[in-house]
What does this fold into?
Amino acid sequence: MTHVVVDPVTRIEGHLRIEAEVDGGAVKDAWSSSTMFRGIEMILKGRDPRDAWVFTQRICGVCTTVHAIASVRAVENAIGAKPPPNARLLRNLIMSAQMVQDHVIHFYHLHALDWVDVVSALSADPAKTSTLAESISDWPLSSRKYFAGVQSRIKTFVERGQLGPFANAYWGHPAYRLPPEANLMAVAHYLEALDWQREFIKLHAVLGGKNPHLQSFLVGGMATPIDPDKQASLNIGTIARLKELIAKANDFVARVYIPDVLAVASFYKDWAGIGGGLGNYLVYGEYPDDDGDKPQLFFPSGVIWNKNIAGVEEFDPGKISEYITHSWYEYGGGDGVPLHPSVGETRPKYTGPTPPYDRLDTNAKYSWLKSPRYDNKAVEVGPLARMLVAYGRGQPRVKAVVNDVLAKLGVGPEALFSTLGRVAARAVETLILAEKMGTWVDALAENMGKHDLRIHDNTKWDPKSWPKDTIGAGFHEAPRGALGHWVHIQNGAIKNYQCVVPSTWNAGPRDPSGARGAYESSLLATPVANPEQPLEILRTIHSFDPCMACGVHVLDPTGHELLQVRVA
Amino acid sequence: MASNQGRLGDELKRRGVSRRDFVTFCAGVATYFALPKSAGAEMAKAVEKSLKPSLVWLEFQDCTGNTESLLRSSRPSVAEVILDYLSVDYHETIMAAAGAQADGALAQAIKANRDQYIVIIEGSIPTGANGAYCTIGGKSALQIARETCEHAAGVIAVGTCAAYGGIPAAAPNPTGALGVSAAVPGIKNLVNLPACPTNAENLTALIVYYLTYKRWPPLDAQGRPLFAHGKTIHDNCERRAHFDAGQYVEMWGDEAHRNGECLFKMGCKGPATYNNCPVVRWNEGTNWPIGCGHPCVGCAEPAFWDRMTPFYKHLEGVAGYAVASDVDKVGVAATAAVGAAFVGHGLVQLGIHRRDHAKEAETKEEEKK
It folds into this structure.
C-alpha cells in the first residue's frame, strides 16, 4: 500500500489536495481536501444587497459570471424584482458565452495535457498529421506546412532548454497512448484555442465592459442600455458584433473541439469504464426561454439516482443540506446533523495539522469544504449531470447529439458514466449551447426593433420598496454544475448570505456515514501505473474541472424558513 | 543554463513578428510612460538582447482572475511572445506537472536563477490560524511567499488582493489576510499592480519596462506604477463632458443612460480611482465598465471593498459636482459614509510623497488643472 499525496493539484482553479491509497496498481481509497479559505459570506454581512453580486463574483475569476448571476437572482427573489425580457436575454448570452469559453479552455489548457504527450509530438510526421486532421475535420489550418511549423516551434522551445510550464511533467508515461501525429495536432489546437478564447470572450466585454469580472449586472436587470438609434447604447452594430463572435465560436467548436474530443476519446475508450463514481446526478436547470414565473429551461432540471436515466425525478430545493463532520467548522447542534442552507451555521474552526505538514488526519476533519447532500445522499453535478438529465427528459437536441457521439465512438450509453463521459458531455453541451446563442441575439434584435428598451425593474431599486425581512434563493447552472445562493435581507441590509457551489458538491469530504463525495468516489479503482507520477489520478479529477475557490464557503445562523424558491 | 537561452530577437523572427511590428509595439509601450516615440526603437533593442528570464507565479487567497486576465492579453502575437519569452517555470493554473513534481519545478527555478527571477503573486496572504487558511503542499502561503521572494530580482503583487489584501481583507477580515508588502515586509523591488483584476496590458508593459531599463518604474505612494495609475478614471473619462455639463444618469435605462451621460449619481467612483481603464480599455480595447453603462467601483484602490461601498451611492466632495442644486433629489439618501471615506482618501492621495520628484511636480501640475 502506497500513500500518494497530490498537492498542489495543478491545471485547476484554486487549491486542491488529493490523498490516496494505492495498492496493486489501482486506487483503493481517496480523500479530497480544499486548503484555502477566505470567508466571503462573513464579509457580506451588513452590506447593501445590491452590492452583493460584486463581492460574490470575486469568489471566482475563472467562472467570473456565475456568482454574480446567482446573487442578483437571489436578491431579486427576496425583494420581488422582475428583470425585463431584455435582461433575461442579455444574461442568457453572458452565461452561455461563459460556459462555451470555459469548456473550451478546460479541454485544451487544463485537461489536454493528461491525454496529450507534448514531447511525443516532436517525432510526428507533419504530412501524416495533415492527413489525420483532414480525415476528421474540414478546418482549414491542416496543411503539412502548418503542422511542420508548429512542430518546429515546439522543437525550438524544447532545444532551448527552458521547458517552463512543461517541465517536470509525465512525458513518456505509459498511460499516454496517442500516436505522435495526434499529439502534434492536439498541440497545434492547444495554441489555436489560446487565441480563440481571447477573441470569443470579447462578447463579455461588449455586454459587460470587461472580462474577467464583467461589470454590467444589476439587481433587477442589467446596466447596458439598449437603443437602436443611440451610439452609447447596445444597438444594431452590437447585434452584428455578437452574431460575428457567435458564428466564429460555433465554427471552432464544431470543426475543432468536437472532432478533437472524438479523436482523443477513440484512443482512450478504456476510460469509458473508469472514474464513474456515484451514479447520482443533480441539475437545477438553466437558460430560461420565456419570462413566466416557471419558465421553460433549455437545459431542464432534475435528479437521477443510480444511473437510472429513464426515471428523472423533480428537483426539490428543500432536500439540500450540508454536513461538516469532516470539515474545519463546527455546528451548535453537533457535527452529525446536516443543516439546510436556509438554517445553516458557520463557525470556522481549524483542527488540522499546523503547517508545514506532510499528512492530513483523514479520520478527523480534513477540508475547508463542507459535504452537501441531496435527500441525504451524495450526488454529482456538472456537464455530465446536465446532459444525462436532458437526455432522460428527452431534450431533442441533446438526445440527437449524444446518440451521434456514442455511435461515432461505437459505445453504448453506459460509457457516459465515466471519466471519459464527463469529457464528452462537456463537449456536447458546448456545441448545443453555442448553436442556441444566436436565437437570443435574434430575440434581442427583435425587441430593439419594437422599441422595447427596458433593461431594468426600476420599481424595486429603492430599498424602501423592499419587505423589512425577507429571504430569497437564486439558482444557476454554472459550467461546473448546480449553484445556489441564499440571502436573508433585514431592513435593507444583508443579515445572512450562503452559497452552495458545484465544486463543493463534487469535491466535498465524507459525511458522518463515511459516504464519499463525487471526487473521492470516482477515484476508486482508478489505475495508477506509477505512484510517483499520478497521471491517472489527475485525469479523473480534471474530468470534473475543479474550481476550488468557488467551493469554500461559509454559512451563518438564521432562524428563518426558506420562504420561496425560484429558478431564473 | 544561460548558454541554452535564446534571444528575443530570434524568437520574434521565428514567430513571424517583424522587427518593424515589434518596434511599433515598443513605441506604444513608450507612450504609456510618456516617453518620446523614438524611445520605442531603443526599447526594442534592449529587449531583444535580453535572455529569457525565469518567472515564478504564485497563487494564494485568489480567484485566478489575474491569471485569466493574462490569458486575455492584447496585441496578440507580440504579447504572446513577451509571455513566451519569459520562462514561466511555476504557475499552478497552467503547468503540466502536479504535486511533488510541481514543488520540484519551483525549487529548481529558485535555485538556478538566484537573484535573477521575477515573482508574481496573485491573491492575499492569510496570517490567522497559523497559516492554515491557505496551504500548498502542506506549507503556508506565508512561508512560501517568504522563501520565494527572498532571492527574487523583483516581485509584482498583481491584483488588489496581492497588493492590498483585497476582498479577503474586507471587514471583518476573517482570516487576517494581508497584501504582500504587509505580509512580507522588506521585499526589495516590490511593485503593486492592483485592480480587480489587473489589466493584462499593464502587466505586459510593466515587464517590458523592467527588461528594458533593468529597474522598476516610478511608483505612487500606494506602490503602483505611475504609467498605469498616475491619473484618475475621471480625468480621462469619455463621459467627462457630461459631468462638467451637469448631465447625469438618474435611473438605469433612462434617456441619459442611453445617451451615455455621466454615471456619477449612480455611484461612480471614477473621481477617486487612479487607473488607466478609459485609455487602455479592456479585451484589446473592446470596452470598459463605464463604456457598458455601469459605474466604476474603484477596484484599483486600497480597501475599496470598504471605502467605496455602497457601490451605488455617489461620492461627496468632488469638485465640479453640484452644478445643479437639486442633484440629490433622486433616490440617494445616505451618502455621508461614502463622502467621509472619499475625503479621507483624497487627503491620502494629495499627501503622498512620490519617489520621483519630477513626477511629483508633474502630478501637481495635473491636479491644478
Notes: Chain B is about 40% helix and 10% strand.
